[in-house]
Amino acid sequence: MIRKYGFLVFVLFQVLVVGCYAQVRTGSERTETYLPLLQGERVGLVVNHTSIVGDRHLVDVFREEGLALHRIFTPEHGFHGRFADGATVDEQGSVADIPVVSLYGEKRKPAPEDMEGVDVVVFDLQDVGVRCYTYLSTLHYVMEACAENGVKLLILDRPNPNGYFVDGPVLEPAFRSFVGMHPIPFVHGMTLGELARMINGEGWLGDGLQCNLTVIPCKNYTHRTFYELPAPPSPNLPNMKAVYLYPSLVLFEGTVVSVGRGTDFPFQVFGHPAFEGYPLEFTPVAVPGVSDHPPLQGETCFGVDLREVPYEFLHDQACIILDWLLAAREEYGNDTTFFTPYFDRLAGTAELREMIMEGKDKYQIRYAWKKNLDAFREQRKPYLLYPE
After folding, report:
1. Nearest alpha carbon to residue 192 among 213, 209, 210, 170
2. What pLDDT is stored for residue 7 in this prediction?
3. CATH for the 18-228 domain, from 3.40.50.12170, 3.10.450.350, 3.40.190.10, 3.30.420.40
4. 3-class state of residue 313 by DSSP
5. Helix (H) or strand (E) holding 312
6. Is the predicted pLDDT of residue 14 greater than 50, yes or no?
């Protein structure tokens, strides 16, 4: 009870004091800082539906300022955030007469011809703080393209809603993919601006490449600041509860268990047809633009409803809640079919799956992560822009 009310007091302080006198200002809202840097420049934009400044889109702000907008690049889910997770984004044409290039279709990285005539690329996407969320991978490839083509990169930083903790396995090189490109923990606790500084500083672009990088930081933000996202970051993260549960539930994507894709409550439940007797019942269906082909489509699943899990519980845990994954594996049985081949790629290692299959408990698993997590916390310190 003391911990519960202590957190409520903390939130009340944020609302009454921080909210009134020191509201978080995202990088995009600090127009007085970055607009002068863009005058006379030919600008490319990496944006989507989360790239807003108050009640306006960044594209509209730039047009009103008379900036020379040359090209728009879009990540997974597209400019309007209407493409389902993993769906090829085949956007063509233009937005406000500005040519659009998809970076989640035939290409993941801007081609040299896409960068022609661009002096600076402005990057403004809302991340959620988990390594497999692909906006970070898009950032990497944009940095690489900027470095190779002599184009400057300006990042308008945004808070990380899960920035208050660091947890999970550090990615091993053998498991590098678009859902994990860097040797960082599964939950890294950094903003995209901080990660860009780290990618540059640690030489992760490879071949000696260095991106000409400027980050416009948020104001009045720390890694423990409560920040409610002004727009859902992607179709299957429709609210803050899903965003906060995502670090613990996304690993289920590498198993036979559903996390509610194809329902009204994605990433707020988990279940499977074999879990009979569990209180929640749901049936995933195809939802165009949200979950085109959800796992277990049309099958009645039984499982656990996490929609009422208090925010203070998640805040107090400050970790990946392994209990749910371990309980689901036990309920399903020790059949090796519980995990799909995607699990190791998602986790960035085979060790987590192997430990679970060996019957290790959450304390043993977490202890196996400790050395690498401690090293990462030290490694990231020079790149942090905000107090921990």
Report:
1. 213
2. 42
3. 3.40.50.12170
4. helix
5. helix 311-317
6. no
